[in-house]
Amino acid sequence: MPRTASQYKEMKDERIASIFEASIPLFIEFGKKKTTVDKICARAKCSHGLVYHYFKDTDDIYNAITKLDIYKKLHDDLFSNIKNRLSIDILNHFSEVLLTATKDKKESLIAHFLIDEEGKNCFFDILAKTIKQGQKEGDILAGNEKELAHLYIYFFKGIYYKNTNTKGEIEIPSLDVVSYLYKKNRY
User: Fold this and answer.
1) What is the mean pLDDT of residues 99-111?
2) What values do phi and psi take at 137, rounded to 5?
3) How far apart, in whole angstroms, are the C-alpha atoms of residue 48 and residue 38?
4) End-to-end CA distance of the chain
5) pLDDT for 10-38, tens place per residue?
6) Are 55 and 61 in contact (CB under 8 A)?
7) What would the pLDDT profile of 91-101 be if each residue is shown by its tens digit?
């Protein structure tokens, strides 16, 4: 009996999800430039033809990931309502959104991908500018803003890595604990 249109769509969706599931950790580990179709196929246990059936290249896969609903929601949550706020409030907002993402393994993986992105207006650049502004405002720890931004990101990458690579529940720090790490005046 021939397959129905809905069965073909379901197969396509499953295959694309499998490619994304294999690609995201590779983009996180190797970066956009060093992730190859070979690596994706090996991890997804699929043929090159299957990947090329749905995507032109790794850039196409990367861009498709940034169009996923879960990515767009997390991105919007992270960067919404940060204009005209004190830097300390922006960092608390970032921390709250990133901590919330740890409650779901898939969202945690997407958050890890998002904070690892490169390019113009990436999370790192916005974070470093926020830290520098917060230091001028007198609320954020003194130091090189890029080093502090890396430290902040590595903190969350550690949580996400542990969260996506363990079977059991992990203890997630509270927002107060995270805020304590970058506040100048620790109360």
Assistant:
1) 89
2) -75, -15
3) 7
4) 70
5) 989 999 999 999 999 999 999 999 999 99
6) yes
7) 999 999 999 99
